[in-house]
């Protein structure tokens, strides 16, 4: 009898499990069908036009990598001016990102995107027409102002118009456009590298085209409905929400946004600057620390060093030809773009937290491989075999080096050598010409047209090495791991984690932190490499990535599938326990009718589907 009873219980359990599994399948099918039916194409149109700001962001930060190789020859740019042309853009972006928070709050998201488009267009014109390095610097600053405003406005705008089940994917599309812009920039660099004179003008000026397209498009696109509700323009907000949601009833979402704004204003109070209110209100203070921390570790893991200086890094690793270095940099940008597309696919499947942790782990490993490649190159560095006398009788530091690696790290020196098959012979460390890094100040390699005929080679900023492939492998692996997670997730998470009253300021602060650390890393890379060696610099970035892993594991909660108005509750616990929040916490269930039977949909998808 007992055995029969156990069999009956087991049969009932199996039946219950099968029923639950069947119910779960029906729930997922109903959710997919509902979401597909109820998402109007207008949401995608708005997101794509918004993400053109991301494309311009990527293009204008990526194009400088190849342009520098031509500019340093044509305008005789030293290392300081190269760093200035890169870092002036990110410095201006840091300032305008902070100012963008105020502008977003006062004027709205749409006018800020129009302003960014105008700045991109003006900056491109200045760069294309530049006659000297000072004008180039001014043009890069104007472009940087546009990048800063776009970088903090576009993710917020997309997050506020997107439905919850698409929000992560649509915000990540902005990062996809950033990496697409970087790839397009590297292809343009490769094409115009064959124009020895003025090729850089086309590289730097072409960004005016998408900027004008975005400006014209946004003349006809709507403002964020959440911003309009906050400003009391309720009828206009309802009309725009109806456009964004199609046939879906908007009353619940509209009431949720409106009630949330009213409760926040009562709870936090309207007195004082928003940043002060954020810092004194624990949930927003914790969210701000998490958002700024994500942006900081994104930069400290070295991404913009890799993107800005990709062509230069490849030369440092031993790739001698300018054009080959530019096309290899285009390959790395393409990999970045493709794996960002992988991130768009994964973000609503894995969630933000798992994707970010996995991405940063792989990034740290790739940085170690990249550093190891430079370490191997340093260990087999060619020996200096000739020490010719300086005809000017000046005391040069170049004569003190016994190996190419030391000569390469000195910005005033270069290596003049011959090749016997693959071996370096008759090598000497010579001062570089003050007006051009492409030749020596004196001696065998001082006349570029002559020394190439005599089978002599001049290496500035790199050493001939059989380990060039290791650096390229490290770069590729770095982007494979970085692009799906640490690339888009800081922007995606920051667009979600702040309540509406703090969203503009929170994104402005986190974007400002991103650009400040961007400046810090990009401005110091060449000098860091000089003092710590190249492998030391990349080992340093790997250490920062490891610290970032600890921070993200402890502090980043899962926000997948939650309404923007629900996410604040994730930061009610202590900061170091936010990352342990149950990803299902705060979910509640609504029943829907599917062909006469009741199955539940979570995450507030709908109230009635037939």
From TrEMBL:
SUPFAM superfamilies: MFS general substrate transporter. Keywords: Cell membrane, Glycoprotein, Membrane, Phosphoprotein, Transmembrane, Transmembrane helix, Transport. The chain crosses the membrane at residues 41-59, 79-100, 112-130, 136-158, 170-196, 202-221, 287-309, 324-347, 359-378, 467-487, 508-526, 532-556. Pfam families: Sugar_tr (PF00083). It comes from the Eukaryota. InterPro entries: MFS_dom (IPR020846), MFS_sugar_transport-like (IPR005828), MFS_trans_sf (IPR036259), Myo-inositol_Transporter (IPR050814), Sugar/inositol_transpt (IPR003663), Sugar_transporter_CS (IPR005829). It catalyses: myo-inositol(out) + H(+)(out) = myo-inositol(in) + H(+)(in). PROSITE patterns: MFS (PS50850), SUGAR_TRANSPORT_1 (PS00216), SUGAR_TRANSPORT_2 (PS00217). GO terms for molecular function: myo-inositol:proton symporter activity. It is found in: Cell membrane. It is a multi-pass membrane protein. One of its GO terms (cellular component) is apical plasma membrane. Its main location: membrane. Residues 46-560 form the Major facilitator superfamily (MFS) profile domain. H(+)-myo-inositol cotransporter. Can also transport related stereoisomers. Belongs to the major facilitator superfamily. Sugar transporter (TC 2.A.1.1) family. This is Proton myo-inositol cotransporter. The gene is Slc2a13.
